[in-house]
Amino acid sequence: MHRLVDLRSDTVTVPTPEMRHAMSNAEVGDDVYGEDPTVNRLQERAAELLGKEAALFVPSGTMGNEIAIKVHTRPGDEVLLDEDCHIVKWELGAAAFISQVQLHTLPNQRGIVPVEEYAKRIHPGDDHVPPTRLICLENTHNAAGGVVLPLEYVREVCDLAHAHGVAVHLDGARLFNAAVALGVAARELAAGADSVMFCLSKGLACPVGSILCGSRAFIEEARRVRKILGGAMRQVGILAAAGLVALDTMINRLAEDHARARRLAEAIAHLPGFSVDLETVQTNMVYVHTEQPARRVVQQLETLGVLCLDVFPHTIRLVTHKDVDDRDVTYAIEAFTKVAA
Ligand SMILES: *Cc1c(COP(=O)(O)O)cnc(C)c1O
User: Fold this and answer.
1) How does pLDDT run across 273-290, given as a tens digit for each residue?
2) Ligand 1 probe mutation, 142, 283, 284, 309, most atoms within 8 A of CB
3) I need a labelling partner for 44 at 20 to 30 A (CA). Which of 62, 242, 290, 317 fits?
4) Do 238 and 259 have their domain in common?
């Protein structure tokens, strides 16, 4: 019997024994009345960690992003963002559906839209042109291979936006991966953003949940929108308890995931039929270019017990996470070697 190594996503991580223990013992109350002490503690911790006034626990990263867009904009406003970001590609057009905004997408290099490009597009609005109300950034950038947006770049975009009265939302689904990779505090990466979302349910290994952070006024309004979207929950301290454990125990260990991704990438890059742009391997993702159709490679790997995703016709994505250890990485490299032969 061979192993099963699941490299499809860091969302497949299961909660740690410590999380399960905390969940089963969580002190709870009705969070719709603001009476769940564990949720309140998690929100306070998260806000402090990201250097914002307040935070809100939300069921998913998608809901966190979409609430942020709704709060920052009015129908008919324009949002500037890169054309490969999660909000554009993988949220089913929710910004149009929920907020009735125009997403003005811009080309990017590895998740980066040149600051001058944003500068050219920002418009105050007139009788013909919709007002730019929001810029969204994504860090780490998923579709670009889990690359990190540099601190200086994030600052420049935020400064430009604010000089024009435009807000910035940071989709930081994997913000802690970016922080660990750069060796800076997450709050530094979030400093210029008016709102930030991060996921507890990815590399941080919680079963459910994301956090939206911002000013007190922003979070107050976000709370209303969350309710409208059906995202207000009751004794949700059971989930928040896992989040508190994650913030204590799961952030620093992300460096291990990054090291394993690097090892995978370097090994696969040498195999015939595969190539990897090693410069993009900065966190826990590896995008592998395949000469064969990616779908076929994924199927062959699956028969060997290695799961990954074909994200483009000739690209597969591998994601390392806490449920993939060194032996799993060795096993996955062996499987790739067999497929390459
Ligand atoms: C996963 C992800 C989200 C959405 O999170 P869900 O919890 O899956 O809704 C948003 N942005 C990025 C960059 C992501 O990778």
Assistant:
1) 999 999 999 999 999 999
2) 142
3) 62
4) no
